[in-house]
Each structure stands twice: as C-alpha cells, then as structure tokens.
Amino acid sequence: MGSDGDVIALNRQLINHQLTIGRIKLLLINNQTAVNNYLNKCLYVVNIGTNDYVNNYYLPPSRIMNTPDRFAQILISRFTQQLRTLYNSGAKKVAVFGLDLLGCFPQELAT
C-alpha cells in the first residue's frame, strides 16, 4: 500500500517521527525522562484506511486477488503494527479515525 499525490504513507510518517524524536533528544540533552514527559503531552491524530481502499483495493489486481473481508484483514494487520510502532516510540495519546462511507465512493457506485 503506497501513497499517491500529496498523501504521505504512514510508514514514512513513522520514520519521520523517529527522526523528530532524535532531534528532541538532542534538544533535551539526551534526558530520556524529559523526552518521555514531552511525548506524553503530545496528541497524535491518525486517519487511516480511505486511501488504501481507493488507491489499492478498487484498482486491479487487488480487487481480483482479495475478497473485501480479506483485504480488510490485511489492512487491519498492517495498521495494528503501525499503531504499535507509534505507541512503542512514546505516543500515548492517540486518536484514530477510520474509513469514510465506502459505498459513496464513485469506484464503488460504478460496480
């Protein structure tokens, strides 16, 4: 699952987050307690799923290779790992938003 246009893939965002944490550590003179305290004050907002369906499932060959339930399980597994990575990096306050109503997408209406 990649990204198209101006969308930055979640895996790339997680890498950028690790780089940012490294910079915070430098600013806080490698004081891990101070870094943890800082990260504990942050609110992380994650909006996942819509582009994965629109840009992947609705395009061949994904739709042919996977049932809707199977594709959903693949995404759930991937998102679980990505959210776990975010949590393990210090994110404790995370708001997760999911899919829009897929039945309203032009790709779905056309099928």
Radius of gyration: 17 Å
How many domains in all? 1
Q: How many E strands?
A: 2
Output the structural class: mainly alpha
The averaged pLDDT comes out at 84
> Major beta sheet, specifics?
2 strands, parallel
Mass-distribution shape: elongated
Can you give the helix content as a percent range? 55-70%
In what range is the share of β-strand residues?
5-15%
GO molecular function, one term: hydrolase activity
Subcellular location: Secreted
Pfam family, one: Lipase_GDSL
Protein name: SGNH hydrolase-type esterase domain-containing protein
Task: Summarize the topology.
Blueprint: H1 10-27, H2 32-40, E1 43-47, H3 50-57, H4 62-65, H5 68-88, E2 93-97, H6 106-109
Parallel strand pairs: 1-2
Structure description:
This protein has 111 residues and is mainly alpha-helical. It has one domain (10-109). Helices cover 58% and strands 9% of the residues. The chain has a two-stranded parallel ribbon with strand order 1-2. The longest helix has 21 residues, at 68-88. It is elongated and about 55 Å long. The mean pLDDT is 84.
What tags apply to this protein structure?
single chain, 111 residues, mainly alpha, two-stranded parallel sheet, 6 helices, 2 strands, 58% helix, 9% strand, elongated
Characterize this entry briefly.
With 111 residues, the protein is mainly alpha-helical.
